[in-house]
Amino acid sequence: MNGHIGEIGPEAIDGVVRRVGNEPFTRTIVDGEEGVVISGPYEPEVRRLVGVRIRITGRLSRETEFPGPTLEATSYEIVSVDGERPLLGTLTRDEDGFYLKMRGGKLARLKSVSEALAQSTGGLIWVILDANDGVARYGILRDPPASGGT
Questions:
Q1: How confident is the model over 125-146, as pLDDT tens digits?
Q2: What is the pTM of this model?
Q3: Residues in Cβ contact with 36 at an 8 Å cutoff, skipping those fewer than 6 apart
Q4: Exposed, middle or buried, 80 (CB in 10 Å: 0-12/13-18/19+)?
Q5: N or C, which end of the chain is more exposed by having fewer CB within 10 Å?
Q6: Residue 76 has pLDDT above 50, yes or no
Q7: Using H for helix, E for strand and C for coil, what is the string for 87-122?
Q8: What is the full DSSP assignment across 32-81?
Q9: Can you tell me whether residue 127 is helix, strand or coil?
Q10: Which residues pair with 142 in a beta bridge?
């Protein structure tokens, strides 16, 4: 299925990603029935999804330094970006152009990739395609490796 990252964990929360607090004490929350603070290795990616509806799984703890519970994320799924379901994967380039390498090895050819997006080759991105498979909207969740794209 498109839009998955990581492995399935024991707790799941659906909601919209928000950033709360003041620097340097900001935190990432998923705003469902109650705000749940997100921690763990996926927090930097989830932080880049402010305003996006996700389903996130992990280990929930109510004994934290923050008001409310904390979820140590073990996976997440992008449910919608402004009501649309994005594709998620690594931006890759070959002699024919750009494509998205998704979970399970599935590939999606991308047409009309902007110069700004092309600079993220090798990074983890989400995209919403237009009717001609051009990139209408995108977000970068993980920057490409320092050594360049694939």
A1: 999 999 998 999 999 999 999 8
A2: 0.82
A3: 13, 15, 29, 30, 60, 68, 69, 70, 71
A4: middle
A5: N
A6: yes
A7: EEEEEEEECCEEEEECHHHCEEEEECCCHHHHCCCC
A8: SSSEEEEESTTHHHHHTTTT-EEEEEEEEES-SSSSS-EEEEEEEEEEEB
A9: strand
A10: 124
